[in-house]
Design brief:
Blueprint lengths: L2 H29 L4 H5 L8 H15 L5 H13 L13 H36 L4 H15 L2 H15 L11 H6 L8 H4 L13 H39 L2 H8 L4 H12 L1 H13 L6 H6 L5 H10 L3 H29 L7
Helix pairs in contact: 1-4, 1-16, 5-6, 5-10, 6-10, 7-10, 10-12, 10-13, 11-12, 13-16
């Protein structure tokens, strides 16, 4: 099978898998305990019958609450496939609009933390494999396991205690200073429900750009540090295991016998051939960025997708949760697809079939 036929086959399979994911996603929400209609409908006798019927019809029109299951599934399928996610139950604003407002924060926080963690983890993993059995290897493996085992909320709270409460170096919450945002830097036109989450549309004077960037960096330092320390250990351990396996191969012995420099052996030979499991891990890590860091963003009150999802879970805001889980599943499917294609690029022995 050629590459084009393989891509076509995988595309069809991915679409079928996506439909299956949407179906499972819908069933899970339908089986969740509690009745969303009870959150918005008044108790029996709380309003005149005609007004009660009108209110129920409005709920059906806005969110499909009270409609038959097959009708709700069809509307859910159409809305997700067309990216028309409807309105949030709590704010009455379009879900896509709120999602786009929070997405830059999550991409910056999770994207930066994931990139740093991957680079740091791979480099330290190569060093650990090269120094196998030595004190450096033991230290890197032990520290990675310990930090990876700590609850991320505990790490975040320890950092808040040290760097915010004790030393006062860094702020403990939000993406930027709300007082400066309201009073100094930014000429604002704010809608109340948006400003509550510090999701503000503003115009920044070029003279204040440096102050704005510094404000964002200061507020993101602690959550970034928390995520990096929590994530990098997994890449250290994975890189070390794959490198140890590659370093025992015959071609490594042959390269050393030919006098190839050790650095070239580690990078050009061993790491390249040990990178296939890393590709899958990296692809899935970047695909998971969209879901945000729910615990970390909640601990630091960071206005990203993760905190938004937590608020939606607390309020049973299904119009938010279903699109978020759908996009996360879509990105995961695409990440696996891309990883499969990269396998053939890095390892010519792999054939598409």
């Amino acid at each position: 099978m050629g590459l084009r036929a393989y891509i076509l086959k995988r595309t069809i399979n991915c679409f079928i898998l996506l439909l299956f994911v949407i179906t499972i996603n819908f069933v899970i929400f339908m089986l969740m305990p509690g009745n969303p209609e009870a959150l918005f409908m008044p108790p029996p006798g709380g309003m005149p019958p005609e007004q009660y019927v009108q209110w129920r019809e409005r709920l059906k029109k806005l969110w499909g609450i009270g409609e038959p299951v097959h009708v709700r599934f069809y509307k859910t399928l159409v809305s997700l496939l067309t990216w028309n996610f409807g309105k949030s139950i709590t704010t009455r604003r379009p879900v896509a609009e709120e999602m786009l407002a929070r997405l830059p924060y999550t991409i910056y926080l999770l994207g930066t933390a994931t990139t740093i963690s991957i680079i740091l983890g791979v480099v330290l993993g190569v060093i650990a494999a090269y120094k196998r059995g030595e004190s450096v290897d033991s230290f890197l493996v032990s520290s990675s396991i310990i930090l990876y085992s700590f609850p991320v909320f505990w790490i975040g709270q320890i950092f808040i205690l040290i760097f915010t409460i004790k030393l006062g170096w860094f702020p403990h919450a939000h993406a930027f200073d709300p007082e400066r945002a309201f009073k100094k830097l930014y000429p604002l036109s704010i809608e109340p429900n948006i400003s509550q989450n510090l999701m503000i549309n503003f115009n920044v004077n070029t003279n204040d750009l440096a102050a704005l960037i510094g404000d964002y960096l200061r507020h993101s330092f602690l959550p970034l540090l928390t995520l990096v320390l929590f994530l990098y250990g997994g890449y250290v351990l994975l890189t070390r295991v794959t490198m140890l396996e590659a370093l025992t191969e015959d071609y490594i012995v042959t390269a050393r016998a030919k006098g190839v420099p050790e650095r070239d052996i580690l990078i050009k030979h061993a790491l390249k051939n040990a990178s296939l499991p890393l590709i899958t891990a990296v692809a899935l890590a970047y695909a998971g960025i969209f879901g945000g860091a729910i615990i970390t963003e909640t601990v630091f009150s960071y206005p990203g997708i993760g905190r938004w999802v937590w608020e939606a879970i607390s309020a049973r805001n299904y119009p938010i949760l279903m699109p978020v889980f759908y996009i996360m599943a879509l990105l995961t499917i695409l990440a696996n697809f891309v990883a499969d294609l990269l396998y053939g690029v890095l390892d010519p022995r792999i054939k598409y079939g």
